Amino acid sequence: MFDSKIKIMRLSTRNQLKGTISSITEGSINSEVVISLPGGTSIVSVVTNAAAKNLELAVGKTAYALIKSSNVIIGVDVQKISARNVLTGKVSSILEGAINDEVSINLGSGYTITAVITKSSVASLELKVGVIASAIIKASAVILGVD
Q1: How many whole angstroms separate alpha carbon 84 and alpha carbon 111?
Q2: Comparing C-alpha atoms, which of 44, 51, 88 is closest to residue 67?
């Protein structure tokens, strides 16, 4: 029985993108799930068929794409890459650390994705606020959640 007094889980994952499931392709072991965000951006996740069934995933249902900032790679002028998710926008902030920097990219429509990358990568990519950059995430690194 569901207890209405139970609080919803809070997560340490900074990147929590809410959208609508636009397609599900089931394989023999895994399913590919595409979540459409407002503004036309899509996120692809690969989960086991058991997870898809347990979450009761269905086209049209609301879902959350959860991505750890350490699983986000940043690229500039990305042409071709095997990762299914290449989300392009403008760098909106860079928080400098001793070894790593936290880079946030505004994807539009109220969505931002954050990556933690090395200071040397920030320098070699010449990242600054306002620069066009892409957040790159493998589909297997995208965790799905539902209400």
Answers
A1: 18
A2: 44
Q: Which domains does the chain have, with CATH numbers?
A: 15-67+139-145 (2.40.50.100), 70-137 (2.40.50.100)
The type of residue at 92 is S
Q: Could you tell me which residues are beta bridge partners of residue 145?
A: 64
Residue 79 dihedral angles phi and psi, to the nearest 5°: -100, -65
Measured distance CA(86)–CA(135) in Å, rounded: 6
CB atoms within 10 A of CB 117: 19
Tens-digit pLDDT string for the chain (147 aa):
445 555 557 888 989 999 999 999 999 999 999 999 999 999 999 999 999 999 999 999 999 999 999 999 999 999 999 999 999 999 999 999 999 999 999 999 999 999 999 999 999 999 999 999 999 999 999 999 998
**Would you say 119 and 138 are in contact if contact means Cβ atoms under 8 Å apart?**
no
Of 130, 120, 70, 114, nearest to 98 by C-alpha is: 120
Long-range contacts of 57-60 (CB under 8 A, 24+ apart): 57/21, 57/24, 57/31, 57/33, 57/144, 57/146, 58/21, 58/24, 59/21, 59/22, 59/23, 59/24, 60/20, 60/21
